[in-house]
Design a protein that fits this description.
The complex is a heterodimer. Chain A is of the alpha/beta class. Chain A contains nine helices and 13 strands. By secondary structure, chain B is of the alpha/beta class. Classes of the chains: A alpha/beta, B alpha/beta.
Chain lengths: 292, 228
Amino acid sequence: MKILITGATGFIGNKLMEHFKSKKHIVFGISRSKTDKKIKNISLDDETKLKNYFKRNKFDIVIHLGSTLNDDNPKTIFDENISSLITLLECCRINKIKKFIFASSHIVYGDTNYLPIDEIHHTNPKNNYGIMKLINENICKMYSMNYNLDIAILRISSVYGKDQSEKLLIPTLIRNYLVSKELNIHKYKNGFQSMDLIHIDDVCQAIESTCKLKDKFDIFNIATGNSITAMEIAKIFLKIDKTSKIKIKKINQTTNHFFYDISKATKKLKFKPKIKITQKMIKSWLDDSRIT
Amino acid sequence: MTRLLIFDFDDTLVNNHYLDIKSFEIPYKMVSLDPPSKYEIKKLRKKGKTADYIIKNNLKKNNLKKFYNNIINEREKFFSKDQTNYLILQNHLEKNLAKIKIKNIELNIITANKNKKLVLQFLKQKKIIKYFSKVVFMDDLNIKLDNRDEGNRILIKRSLLYSILKKSRIKKNEILYIGNSLEDFKACENLQINFIHFQNDYLSKLVNNEIITINSMSELKNAIRIMI
């Protein structure tokens, strides 16, 4: 298969490129970032350049991971993400792409109405990024209905893995530990937040399975189907080093608990997440962080 | 027409007032302390406070915080044993379940009770398990929320109810839920399911007069008729 990945220099994009290469697929990556010489530097706003790139390469599958995350500037978020999606879908339509996969986010659900959250749970995103993802999902749906494109939407839960952004939970705990051996976690009025953390390798596996899906349009939760709290993760650190301390900061707000129903992905994509957060995994990341 | 009747377990199908009181009395006795008074437990339970809160509050008041872990451990031991003898089946329940079952109405139970073994043992002992085609526990949904504040309790109830709705082919307006608390009502309101309030003087009283309320299970059949 000839696969194009947008946002190829991002955390998921990077790992997905490696994943598909290891499976002997022909993979092309584009990104607006110039950090990786192997990735073609094309901005999704550049319609002419993108159309020529599509014409030259004749892709079978397009996986759209690219997005702008700047939440401080709503205009940029909506302008860039929505117009670039439409440009990309136009290229797919003209070139009769077999499958378009859009990486959405669990953020589209907003407040939790019930657990586990399934794909028909109401969508009421609370931030610009979530609203943008939901608008993009609807644009994808419209393209699938009106222009006969095969599209799959993946609502991906919080992803973790080696080399991910330092702002996220596990890298933050690693940094806390390395600096002071104090693990700072938040306790809300309704307890520790329950989350559904999925390993990057499982996400890659889910995307690969989606490439084989024959449906015209479908939405899937990509998660583990299990909840974990920051406290449970902090306790893993404590098992590794008993001298570390958990520091609980009380937050005078309630938080949203979430974990997802993945039965649809299990049934249609044969998706089964395999990786769990273990002591061994955290220890190896800690050791690597100490070296670097 | 009602085709599915869902019961809440604690304080609706069973009266667990006695069990609740004992679950404080016995652990406190084991560490040679005086338990919170029945009045205090009842007052705090009505406010929706958890056992953990009641114990912490009581120990703090009496300057006995250091005994917290011991009491919690004793409480765990207490619940690890068969305590079904402290549970009381609501009056007139069995007779009315039989009458409802004859009318081809499916019966289910949902419960946020963490003690699955206790609930099932009790239903078997009282020989009423035969009436229910499904009993859904928090564990079955993989929900692990330790904190039981009001928001979380409503979320748990909604999740339990939704798990039945999702698998059932019965329309929402043919489903009726019988519960005793405000969170039961709020969960039904959110999922647009009909609700009957079982008034229970121990744990909760609803303030909304528009809700159909029964004070005894003998009124259940009539209440269902009104709902139709």
